[in-house]
Request: fold
Amino acid sequence: MLPETRRRRLRELITKQGYATLDELVKALNVSESTVRRDLETLDLTGAVKRTHGGAVYSGEVRALPAFDERTHTAMAEKRAIGEATAALIEDGDTVLLDGGTTTLEVARALLAREIHVQVVTNSLPIAQLVAASHQTDLILIGGYVYPRTGVALGPLAIAMMQGIRVRKAILGAGGIMADGVYNSNLLLVETERQMMACGQEVVIAADWTKFGRLALARLCGLDEVTRLVCDDRTPEAQRAMLEAAGVIVHTAGLEGRNGHDGPGGKAAAGLPGKATETDERTEA
Reply:
């Protein structure tokens, strides 16, 4: 089989399933594991799929949403590392709520790669499409007004649906993080995210270094309302110290060849390699 034909077949299989293990792909194509690994590396470079530990995830579904396509060059590596570090905090059997955004999309991708059984509640169509293809993950999709730029359900209907839901961890992104709290630029999004926070036993914020010291339109919450924050190791030490002083457990995702950091009582998510493919739309809503 020609390499081009083989890679097209790999892409078709991963696209159809959303996620495929290395063993599944080896059996489907009847080729060696090393051949599949090389082909997946090639497809990852083109953006057609994303390599994960033990397989690959389809990444093309977000291309249809303009906001994801428009913002692809800021903190790419950091977002993927943050996604992996955040997913590492989720335990088998957990129920988690994933906010919409490209950072949380990276969390979803990394979570599927862990191959544990979890229930995922989300208001994000891109995340739902990804998770729905997994045989090990249960999906609960929040409805409401779908913001066309990001495919995220917002507003009164989404809020009403979440009022009867409780999850172990509510994982949200951020548009800005200041000493007085967490901010986002969309008022309707902030209103919806406040209800998400009320659903969670723990509130986890996933945000890269570009969000620190940045003010956005609407204040979501104070730092004292955040249980954990996952950032990358480009985040200034002073910003991490500010969070720890407010009682936030800080987890720092290390990029390749760099060390992570642990907040008081936290578990380090250091040395997690990877690169993200998009940036978080919430700051541009």
